[in-house]
Write a structure and sequence with these properties.
Elements (H helix, E strand, L loop, with lengths): L4 H26 L3 H26 L2 H27 L4 H20 L3 H25 L5 H16 L1 H10 L12 H37 L8 E2 H8 L3 E2 L4 E7 L2 H8 L1 H17 L6 E6 L2 E6 L4 H16 L3 E3 L2 E3 L3 E7 L5 E2 H17 L5 E3 L6
Parallel strand pairs: 1-4, 8-10
Antiparallel strand pairs: 2-9, 3-5, 3-8, 4-5, 6-7
GO molecular function, one term: diguanylate cyclase activity
Catalytic activity: 2 GTP = 3',3'-c-di-GMP + 2 diphosphate
Organism: Paradevosia shaoguanensis
Length: 382
């Protein structure tokens, strides 16, 4: 043994405590990412497990060995839950309960039968499986922040592999009843990899949390808070400096008589009308296109990979769908209508501002022609 096992276990316990405390304080600062809180609970459970193993290393207590194994496995179940929540944005409770029940049974039954060596073997194998599952869950969500998430997945995976030699060495030593606490190069390697994993995962988890916060701030800056669509800034940043061609259409929608809706039915009903129209518009947004609220009751839809006829069909569908919506006000239900102006690029170097200007002219034409209709800018901008 080239490193004292008890010292390694104590170091692991302190590292797990530091990770748990750091993650908990990080969660307290914002209380928005619940997976951080669950992560903190899992790290705290691991701390208790490592403390139990360090005591058992000098006392060789049967019940303490079982309890420490259960705490270690329970901590890894909690970390698996945090990974699921990170990837899926909701906690798959049925799956977590099934994983926790199976893990507890596989570890506990051998101890109940008096085979603590077999229990330790099963504990190592179960822990390896849980960590591989955790690595897989993070790897599935790698698109959010590839550098940090791939690093976390790799550390979980490498730590998982370090449990397998422990199981093999316990098996090779013979009887299914331990004569002394498991020790040797495999346990030392497992402890060292655990220490590296806990430390690395702690650092990367903080970076991941900061990356998610930065992305959320960026999304908030580019999103209209009432409708959830892009705002004017976002759509102009995306298309404003881009050369557009004939396969791009710009559609401007303006809710008809919106001021009278606010005056007659109240501003709450007006806000609901805006949200309902945004919902109708979102359902008609083709792939790789963008819908935005650009001010007041005015909305914008930029459609790529299209032509004038298809763009007109989309605008007409949006107009028709919204006309069928029944909006609610203090005096009961009412209907709203929308007018739209449309223009497409005229050549492969047309600018977004030019197309938008022609679409805006077409919108005024639709308004002046009686509203609740779609007007298209003629070729050449006339």
């Amino acid at each position: 043994m080239f490193v004292d096992q008890t010292s390694l276990l104590l170091a692991l316990g302190f590292a797990a405590f530091a990770l748990s405390a750091t993650l908990f304080v990080t969660w307290l600062a914002a209380r928005t990412e619940r997976f951080i809180l669950i992560w903190a609970v899992g790290a705290g459970t691991l701390m208790a497990a490592f403390a139990g193993f360090s005591i058992n290393a000098v006392s060789n207590n049967y019940v303490l060995l079982w309890g420490s194994n259960m705490l270690l496995t329970g901590g890894f179940v909690v970390l698996f839950s945090a990974a699921c929540l990170f990837t899926e944005r909701k906690l798959p409770r049925a799956r977590i309960v099934a994983v926790a029940t199976a893990s507890a049974a596989l570890v506990t039954i051998p101890f109940l039968l008096g085979f603590d060596a077999l229990g330790a073997i099963m504990g190592n194998l179960v822990n390896a499986a849980l960590l591989i599952g955790t690595a897989w869950e993070f790897w599935r969500g790698r698109s959010e922040a590839p550098l940090w998430v791939n690093g976390i997945a790799a550390l979980y995976g490498v730590t998982a592999l370090s449990f397998i030699p422990c199981a093999i060495m316990i098996y090779l030593k013979g009887p299914l009843v331990l004569q002394a606490p498991p020790s040797g190069w495999a346990e030392d390697l497992n402890s060292i990899m655990g220490l590296v994993g806990v430390t690395g995962i702690g650092a990367l988890s903080l970076a991941l949390n900061q990356a998610r916060i930065a992305r959320q701030h960026r999304d908030e800056a580019n999103t209209d808070p009432l409708t959830g669509l892009l705002n004017r800034r976002a759509v102009f940043e995306r298309f404003g400096a881009t050369s557009l061609g004939k396969d791009t259409a710009v559609l401007i929608f303006d809710l008809d008589h919106f001021k009278s809706i606010n005056d007659k039915h109240g501003h709450a009903a007006g806000d609901e009308a805006l949200r309902r129209f945004a919902s109708v518009l979102s359902q008609r947004v083709p792939p790789r296109s963008a819908a935005a609220r650009i001010g007041g009751e005015e909305f914008l839809l930029v459609v790529t990979d299209t032509d004038r006829d298809l763009a007109l069909a989309i605008a007409e569908a949006v107009r028709s769908d919204f006309a069928c919506e029944i909006l609610q006000g203090p005096q009961g239900g009412f209907r709203g209508t929308v007018s739209a102006g449309l223009s497409t690029g005229e050549h492969h170097l047309d600018t977004f501002d030019n197309i938008l200007r022609r679409a805006d002219d077409a919108l005024y034409k639709a308004k002046n022609s009686g509203r609740n209709r779609v007007s298209s800018a003629a070729a050449g901008g006339r």
